[in-house]
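R.M. (postdoc): so does anyone remember the format we settled on? I'll just put the C-alpha cells first.
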C-alpha cells in the first residue's frame, strides 16, 4: 500500500466531506456536484482496493490484521452508494445533501483507520 496515497485520500475526503456538510447545513438541494463528490469518494476507494490487492503480492503487506482492513474497506465501499440512494429516494427531505456529506466524512475516518491498520498497528 502507498502511505502518501492513503493519507491524501483521508485528508481529501475530509475536506470534501466538510464542504458537502456545510452546503447541506445551508439547505442547498442535492445536485450533480454532490453526486460527483460521492462518486469521487467511491473512485478513491476502488483505487485503494486495487492497490490493496497488489501491495501484498509485491511484498508490502499490512502490519495489522488483514481481515479487519478488508472489513473496513468493503464497508467503506458500501457507504457512498447507500447514501446517494437514500438521498435520491428521500426527495421530500431537505437534508439530502447533509446525508451524503456525513457519509463522506464517515468514509474519511474509515480511510484514516485503514491507514493505521496497514502501517501503524502491529498485530
Amino acid at each position: 500500500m502507498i502511505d502518501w496515497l492513503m493519507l491524501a485520500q483521508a485528508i481529501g475526503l475530509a475536506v470534501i466531506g466538510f464542504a458537502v456538510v456545510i452546503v447541506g447545513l445551508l439547505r442547498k438541494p442535492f445536485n450533480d456536484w454532490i453526486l460527483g463528490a460521492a462518486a469521487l469518494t467511491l473512485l478513491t476507494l476502488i483505487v485503494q482496493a486495487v492497490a490493496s490487492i497488489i501491495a501484498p503480492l509485491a511484498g508490502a503487506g499490512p502490519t495489522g490484521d488483514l481481515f479487519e482492513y478488508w472489513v473496513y474497506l468493503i464497508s467503506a465501499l458500501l457507504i457512498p452508494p447507500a447514501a446517494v440512494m437514500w438521498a435520491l429516494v428521500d426527495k421530500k427531505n431537505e437534508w439530502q445533501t447533509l446525508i451524503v456529506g456525513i457519509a463522506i466524512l464517515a468514509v474519511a475516518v474509515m480511510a484514516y483507520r485503514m491507514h493505521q491498520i496497514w502501517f501503524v498497528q502491529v498485530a
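R.M.: ...and that's the designed sequence above, right after the C-alpha cells. Also worth knowing: The CA atoms of residues 4 and 103 lie 23 Å apart. DSSP finds four helices and no strands in the chain.
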